[in-house]
């Protein structure tokens, strides 16, 4: 049934006129300018008179910048990857090196591996064996992290701690690409921190615990239920139809459409969805929410799913697992995710 649905969708989209990819995508350039402009105006002009409001706006800029980095790693807004990277090289979110984010996120786009605790770097699921080894307090935190309020409140802390410690192990283990990514990130941090401290006059610890943390919390709203387990890969990715946060997320609330069309620019996703709304929903098995308020009402203080994956990695299966050259990290932190040398043999 899955193959028939996928083929049907392919036939329909193939019959439509192809969207022309512009050499330079000016809407995205405009949003990059707006993002850095909002960040600078909030810090320089508003912080001295309205500090809390300014930090809140800077948090929006941090979340917005993360979405722009996501757009860039998928090949926008120009056809030159180096130019694209330079455009988002001022890391106002402080934590994640762009090249590490790109490396892990592109692995996440292997839809047949979505939600796998080992093979999907963005999975929030844990393997049963790993879960059983965790101390009780950590299990409690991870269970709370699977509610929306928990994800927003403690999710950024769990993510950052797990990510940083795992990256330290990776770099100290001799991973040259990871080391280069962090060196480039450090080069971007120097002017960023200098602007925050000397130009804006914001203590760095305040900036990190407010603008950066709140920005990660905003992104956590989007990522909370982006993926679930389904026997059908197409049923693993969500569609959130409308949201006032859609611009900040660059329409990634239509996440299933993005996964099926990962090179389509953000501003084309709504039209693609509208043109075949029923077909998109049929393809992903109805994993659809009208908006994020609907998700909040359902899962504010209740787990949407268990932390342990319901099907995968329930018992050791080395013959089916990736054979890694080294151990890597998860963007969600707190797990041992192998970075694959080559895909498994089915």
UniProtKB/TrEMBL annotation:
Domain Fatty acid desaturase stretches: 51-288
Region feature Disordered, mapped onto this chain: 323-346
Keyword vocabulary terms for this entry: Membrane, Transmembrane, Transmembrane helix
GO biological process: lipid metabolic process
Membrane-spanning intervals of the chain: 21-39, 45-68, 148-168
Record-given protein name: Fatty acid desaturase
Species assigned in the record: Phyllobacterium brassicacearum
């Amino acid at each position: 049934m899955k193959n028939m649905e996928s083929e049907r969708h392919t036939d329909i989209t193939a019959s439509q006129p192809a969207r022309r990819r512009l050499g330079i995508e000016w809407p995205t350039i405009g949003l990059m300018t707006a993002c850095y402009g909002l960040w600078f105006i909030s810090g320089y002009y508003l912080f001295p008179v309205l500090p809390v409001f300014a930090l809140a706006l800077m948090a929006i800029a941090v979340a917005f910048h993360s979405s722009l980095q996501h757009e860039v790693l998928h090949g926008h807004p120009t056809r030159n990857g180096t130019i694209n990277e330079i455009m988002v090289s001022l890391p106002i979110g402080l934590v994640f090196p762009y090249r590490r984010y790109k490396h892990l996120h592109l692995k996440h786009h292997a839809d047949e591996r979505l939600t796998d605790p080992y093979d999907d770097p963005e999975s929030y699921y844990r393997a049963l064996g790993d879960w059983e080894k965790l101390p009780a307090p950590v299990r409690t935190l991870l269970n709370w992290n699977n509610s929306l309020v928990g994800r927003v409140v403690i999710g950024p802390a769990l993510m950052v701690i797990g990510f940083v410690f795992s990256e330290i192990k990776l770099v100290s283990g001799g991973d040259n690409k990871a080391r280069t990514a962090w060196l480039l990130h450090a080069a971007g941090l120097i002017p960023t921190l200098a602007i925050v401290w000397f130009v804006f006059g914001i203590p760095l610890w305040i900036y990190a615990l407010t603008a950066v943390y709140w920005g990660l919390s905003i992104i956590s709203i989007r990522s909370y239920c982006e993926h679930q387990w389904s026997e059908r890969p197409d049923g693993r990715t969500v569609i959130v139809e409308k949201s006032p946060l859609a611009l900040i997320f660059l329409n990634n609330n239509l996440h299933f459409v993005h996964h099926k069309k990962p090179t389509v620019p953000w501003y084309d996703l709504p039209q693609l969805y509208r043109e075949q709304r029923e077909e998109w929903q049929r393809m992903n098995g109805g994993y659809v929410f009208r908006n994020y308020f609907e998700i909040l009402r359902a899962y504010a203080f209740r787990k949407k799913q268990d932390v342990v994956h319901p099907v995968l990695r329930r018992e050791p299966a080395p013959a089916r697992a990736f054979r890694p050259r080294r151990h890597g990290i998860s963007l969600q932190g707190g797990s041992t995710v192998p970075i694959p040398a080559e895909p498994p043999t089915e």
